[in-house]
Amino acid sequence: MPRPDYRALLATAVEEARLGLAEGGIPIGAALFASDGTLLGRGRNRRVQEGDPSVHGETDAFRKAGRQRSYRDTIMVTTLSPCWYCSGLVKQFGIGTVVMGESVNFQGGHGWLREQGVDIVDLEDPECIALLRDWIAANPSIWNEDIGEDDCPHG
Ligand SMILES: [Zn+2]
User: Fold this and answer.
1) What Cα–Cα distance (Å) separates residue 98 from each residue in 6, 68, 114, 124, 133?
2) pLDDT tens profile 32-71
3) Source organism's superkingdom (predicted)?
4) Structural contact between residues 18 and 29, judged by C-beta atoms closer than 8 angstroms
5) Which of 16, 50, 58, 102 is the catalytic position?
6) What is the pLDDT of residues 10-37, one digit of tens each?
7) CA dihedral 53, 58, 59, 64 (to 10 degrees)
8) Nearest 5 degrees, angle CA 18-CA 6-CA 11?
9) How far is Cα 27 from Cα 135, in angstroms, rounded to an integer?
10) 16, 85, 87, 92: least buried by Cβ within 10 Å?
11) pLDDT at 153 over 50
12) DSSP 3-state assignment of 86?
């Protein structure tokens, strides 16, 4: 089966990130796809919107996808390198592929996931990089809260 166009899949995650931005939230989106590119679930970080720090783009997309028999052939597409929490989810459920929009603004567990045999693709997408970079510059405090850092704005 031919590999789906990862950039086309990323567009859904970016759409979610932009929805989050419009809601006043952290612009990180994600979507879970079947191996043929069929959308299973999509979501976005809603820490700010719902006051729930456990709703990350990946966890939201994962929950929206409902129960799947196997995750081996699924593709988790996210606008940003998955944090340790979401990397744990990928490992726990055996998601076979992670496609990330960027790993410039933040690097989570994708290197570790690669060592675990997960196929990791970094699209180095300029739109994803700019979207989050600008948001972090304007909201350093919320960002530090999201990544679990003490609130000491570094620049
Ligand atoms: Zn996460």
Assistant:
1) 10, 17, 9, 13, 21
2) 999 999 999 999 999 999 999 999 999 999 999 999 999 9
3) Bacteria
4) yes
5) 58
6) 999 999 999 999 999 999 999 999 999 9
7) 130
8) 20
9) 8
10) 92
11) no
12) helix
Contact 62, 41 (CB under 8 A): yes
| Centroid of ligand 1 to alpha carbon of 73 (angstroms) | 20
pLDDT above 70: percentage of residues in the chain: 96
66/62 Cα distance (integer angstroms): 7
Is 58 among the residues known to form the active site? Answer: yes
Distance 107 CA to ligand 1 centre (A): 11
What phi-psi label fits residue 86: left (phi over 0), alpha (psi between -120 and 50 degrees) or beta?
alpha
- The Cα-based distances of 155 to 105, 127, 138 in angstroms read 13, 22, 11
Cα 92 → chain centroid: 16
